[in-house]
Amino acid sequence: MRSAIAILFLIETCLYALASLTHAGFVLEGHEHRQAMIAEAVILVALLLALISLSLGRPWSRTAAIAAQSFALLGTLVGAFTIAVGVGPQTTLEYITHAVMILLLVTGLVWLARNRNASPLGEGSRHDAYLNGSSKLRFSVSIGTSVLTLRTLGIRVR
């Protein structure tokens, strides 16, 4: 799994694990926040499952990755909003962490949307072998729906 998107998912997964552990009080004191810990752990699981789906190379892998990225972005935006209105720790670390999370998630969504025909894990992966006949049509419809969702969220997609 040397592709850029797999590495990005791995970085995101590690970042959410670190954030969840921080809010649990295991990494830094003074940043404990139970709701944030739970939310980041749920997002971590979604991103981890998407990373696993990318490694399987199934026709639905990219759709699962887009769904996980979208879910994570929505959850992170909710977290950023709660920080902005004064809920939870109000530290520079919180602001920076959420900004980095949002940047990484948007980057992943844009990459997945722009590289519809590229295999998530590079040329020759099992992903390419599954895309035949009606699978191509179902896959295209799924990507089209995901791109429409991105556009609805205000993310510009070619």
What's the overall average pLDDT, rounded?
A: 80
Fraction of residues in β-strands: under 5%
Could you tell me the number of beta strands? 0
Reading the helices and strands in chain order gives HHHHHH
Mind describing the biggest β-sheet? none
Rg (C-alpha, Å): 17 Å
What is the helix content? over 70%
Q: Give the termini separation.
A: 26 Å
Low-confidence runs (pLDDT<50, min 5 residues)? 123-142
What would the principal axes of the Cα set say about the shape?
globular
How many helices? The count is: 6
Structural class by helix and strand composition = mainly alpha
Features:
single chain; 158 residues; mainly alpha
Folded structure, characterized:
The chain has 158 residues and is an all-alpha fold. The protein is built from six helices and no strands. It has helices spanning 4-24, 34-56, 61-84, 92-114, 126-130, 134-152. Helix 1 (4-24) runs antiparallel to helix 2, helix 1 (4-24) runs antiparallel to helix 4 and helix 2 (34-56) runs antiparallel to helix 3 (61-84). It is globular.
Q: Topology of this protein?
A:
Elements: H1 4-24, H2 34-56, H3 61-84, H4 92-114, H5 126-130, H6 134-152
Helix pairs in contact: 1-2, 1-4, 2-3, 3-4, 3-6
Produce a short descriptive summary.
This protein has 158 residues and is mainly α.
